[in-house]
Design brief:
Metal Binding Protein, Guanine Nucleotide Exchange Factor, Chain A; mainly beta; two-stranded parallel sheet; 119 residues
């Protein structure tokens, strides 16, 4: 779903506790991308800013929107089952599949995506 939300081949996201995040240039607008999550974007220019599961205490922020993106290096690749065939991940970082863990929100019976017509 990250490809559809960003228009790119993947989304670079950095996790942070919600209570430690401060928006510095106004507040984002939100789109409900599923029954359990929302995506934040700039209301002025449309830049994607965040991915937020309702029930988690962390939020994923687009790394490129951070004031200091170099301070948030990639630690793993998530959602690798949907990567494009020509994209090669050769950095040796862990690769994780969406829904691989039993507690993944996408495995909940009340999960209803609103962005990906194939799910």
């Amino acid at each position: 779903m990250c490809k559809r939300a960003t228009g790119g081949v993947f989304a670079a996201l950095s996790g942070v506790r919600k209570d430690q995040l401060t928006w510095t240039r106004g507040q984002p607008s939100y789109f409900r991308s599923s029954s359990l999550s929302k995506r934040g974007f700039c209301p002025d220019c449309g830049t994607p800013l965040s991915f937020d599961y309702d029930h988690k205490d962390t939020i994923e922020v687009t790394t490129g929107s951070l004031d200091a993106p170099e301070a948030a290096p990639v630690q793993s690749h998530f959602g690798v089952e949907s990567k494009l065939s020509w994209l090669k991940l050769s950095d040796g970082l862990p690769e994780k599949r969406t829904g691989a863990s039993a507690d993944s929100p996408v495995n909940r019976p009340d999960f209803q995506p609103r962005q990906d017509p194939n799910r």
